[in-house]
Amino acid sequence: MDMTDFSSLDPAMQGFLQEAVENGTVYALQDDEGWALTESTEDPDVMVLPLWSSVEGADAAATGEWSIYSSTAIALDELLEDWLPGLQQDGLRVGVNWDAALDGVELPPLELQADLEAVIVAADESGLWDDDDESDGASP
Fold it and tell me: InterPro entries, from UniProt (predicted)?
C-alpha cells in the first residue's frame, strides 16, 4: 500500500491507521471473561474483534449490552507480532474504529497488519517521526 492507496481508504480506516501508528496503541473491550466479540456482518459464522485507535472510541462502544466491558490498551507492536497473526489463525476478523452502534469496517487480521506496516514504513520514509525528536527544544 502506498500513500495513494491510503487516501482511498474508508475515513474510519484512515483515522485508525494514522492514530494507531502515531500513538503506538490500540484499544479493545474486555471484561472478566474475555474480549468483546461480535458476529461479522459479512459472514454470521465468523466472529469479529473490534479495535479502536483511541480510548474514547472504545469507551463510546461500551454501552448497552456492552456496558460490562472496559477499554484495554494493546501495544501496536504486540498487535502486529502476536494478536493479528493469532486472530487470523483462529479464523476471526477485526473491526476498526466502529461507532457506538458497532458499525464500521471489518477485515481479515493480516490485511490490517499489512496496512499498519505500510503506514509505519511510509511514516518512517517521510520523516513523520522527525518532528517528535525535535520537540525537546534542542537545536539540530
Answer: DUF2750 (IPR021284)
